[in-house]
Amino acid sequence: GAGNTGGNTRRGAFNFVADVVQVAGPAVVHIERLVNVPFTRRAVAVSNGSGFLVESNGLIITNAHVVGNQSALNVKLQDGREFEGQVIGIDEARDIAAVKINCTGLPKIPLGTTRDLRPGEWVVAIGSPLALKNTVTAGIVSNMCRAGKELGLRDEEKRDMEYIQTDATINVGNSGGPLVNLDGEVIGINSMMASAGIGFAIPIDYVRDFLQQLEHGQQTRVQHTRRWIGVSMLSLTPEISSHLRARNPDFPDVTTGVYVHKVTPDSPSDIAGVQNGDVIIKINGKQINGVSDVLETLKQNQVLNASICRRGRTIVVRIIAEEIVH
């Protein structure tokens, strides 16, 4: 009959994406940063991405780059309620942050695993951009990118991120939101779209580690001070570089380094002249192989002299990191 989406119709049998959204969607939240307006005492909310509830007591996971330099955020639930969220943990190397709101009885998304994830599997990226109900994009897993292993790094600490590569569209609105499998389990955090058809998500197994450390108090429950430069970054591998070069002939001829996906407006990197699409190859004279190298240097230095490849040229910019006190 008309409007029948039961299992005995073709729509009922094949609308698996809609089923996933019905299960996972209610736990997706919208996250806004509060920005002070110059010369007034007002703070305005600026849309910054999504997050998702992993505990019914208000524990939310999102990207570290969605949190940016804030220690408190505005969180909007699907039912329209708004809460102030406190940033309670952050792992910039893996681009994960935990935010807590004061509320109970909330819907949550079960955590899956990426261990048995196969290329060609269907995935759904869900986000909660401002004033819209959930936005949904579907796609497949292209592959699992293992940055550190491909770069031949043996040191466990330095063994850089793995990413889930997908062609599901990841944008500012669903960044920080869940990448979900067809069982409605979250298998990654939507992180960034390097170019059309090449999106990256952070595997949920990192989030499990992060939550465990948070629970046992090992995760730096946000250090009292941290340094912030305001970029979301991706560790390059030869494979990712060749993908990006195929889409963009201007992409520099490098196979390692850090790709700058997005520069936060008015951040230290923006002020220094860093641009979206830059590749950082050296900081303070040291070669940069991955995101962890940038963060390691940042821990030790507030001033970063960064060598950047941009459209066939190498330029040096001076970034003065912001010290954030929590």
TrEMBL record:
It is a single-pass membrane protein. One of its GO terms (biological process) is positive regulation of apoptotic process. The keyword Transmembrane helix applies. This is Serine protease HTRA2, mitochondrial. GO terms for cellular component: mitochondrial intermembrane space; mitochondrial membrane. It is found in: Mitochondrion intermembrane space; Mitochondrion membrane. Belongs to the peptidase S1C family. Its main location: mitochondrion. Pfam families: PDZ_2 (PF13180), Trypsin_2 (PF13365). Its EC number is 3.4.21.108. Keywords: Apoptosis, Hydrolase, Membrane, Mitochondrion, Protease, Serine protease, Transit peptide, Transmembrane, Transmembrane helix, Zymogen. GO terms for molecular function: serine-type endopeptidase activity. It catalyses: Cleavage of non-polar aliphatic amino-acids at the P1 position, with a preference for Val, Ile and Met. At the P2 and P3 positions, Arg is selected most strongly with a secondary preference for other hydrophilic residues. Residues 257-292 form the PDZ domain. It comes from Ciona intestinalis. The keyword Protease applies. PROSITE patterns: PDZ. It is an enzyme of class 3 (hydrolase).
